[in-house]
Amino acid sequence: MAHSLRWRDLRQQIMLRIPGNCPLCLTRTAAGLLCNGCCQSVCDSMLLGRARCAACALLLNSQGKCADCLYNAPVFQSVVAAFDYQFPGSVLILQFKQGKRYLLAAALAELLVPRLQDLKLTLPGATILVPVPASRLALQQRGFNPAGEIARHLSRRLHIPCSNVLFRRKETGPQKWAGRQQRYQQVRRLYGLKQSAALSGKHVWVVDDVLTTGSTLNAVSYLLTQAGAASVHGVVLARTPLSS
Ligand SMILES: [Zn+2]
Ligand SMILES: [Zn+2]
Q1: Mean pLDDT lowest among 68-72, 91-95, 230-234
Q2: Of 4, 96, 190, 205, which has the fewest beta carbons less than 10 angstroms from its beta carbon?
Q3: How many structural domains is the chain composed of?
Q4: Residue 178's domain is classified under what CATH number?
Q5: CA of residue 42 to ligand 2 center, whole Å
Q6: Distances (CA, A) of 115 to 98, 149, 159, 222
Q7: What pLDDT score does 178 carry?
Q8: Is residue 103 part of a domain?
């Protein structure tokens, strides 16, 4: 059921003040966040293993190259991803999006907080959080924008303003089954920037739930850079390990 933004925020604030259960193993935790063991098992996918692309966080191939950045040079500076889109983190994403459990936004966004505190230290000057807007169809079906829920939680936790300066120009079909080429074509000119956006000299953190090929992030990074952003960084819960 769709809840208003105000009601979701209020409910989220109440839930963060009472004990809950770890969404993966159901042990009792403060505010229903992930327990330490589940945090580690989810985030190990990103923090351990082979070298990653410095720009988009994809695992480098055996030649030390990034398949996505080779195909489409990144306009953004870096990506912070909490985990690879694989088990067990993928279960949380499915519960959050398909299960329409918007209260999971806090537990999931919390995985990004330490990484973003480190990133903030490297970026002198003003930073702004900008969620990627959802399609009208997805909003109707889900009742909320996952990227918006994550961005609002991060805004509260990190004391960084959040602004919905992006909009979608037109609706397209779901990206889930689109191939790489099709995806790039779909996102071209899909997003626009509101005229009220004041981004000059600011570091922009573009928030989304999952980064698959980087095509969406690249498209909006171009707009944000053209509008004077000092730098653009992707902030996502999950990075899809291998793009099709
Ligand atoms: Zn747990
Ligand atoms: Zn890359």
Answers
A1: 68-72
A2: 4
A3: 1
A4: 3.40.50.2020
A5: 21
A6: 26, 18, 15, 24
A7: 60
A8: yes
For residue 32, report the distance from its CA to the centre of ligand 1, in Å.
Answer: 10
CA of 160 relative to ligand 2 center, distance in Å? 26
Query: For residue 67, what pLDDT band results from cuts at 50, 70 and 90?
Result: confident
Mean pLDDT taken over the chain: 89
14 — pLDDT class (breaks 50, 70, 90): confident
Does 209 reside within a domain? yes
CA 31–ligand 1 middle distance (angstroms): 13
Q: Give the model confidence (pLDDT) of 159-188 as tens digits.
A: 999 999 999 987 655 655 566 666 666 777
Interval between CA 106 and ligand 2 midpoint (Å): 27
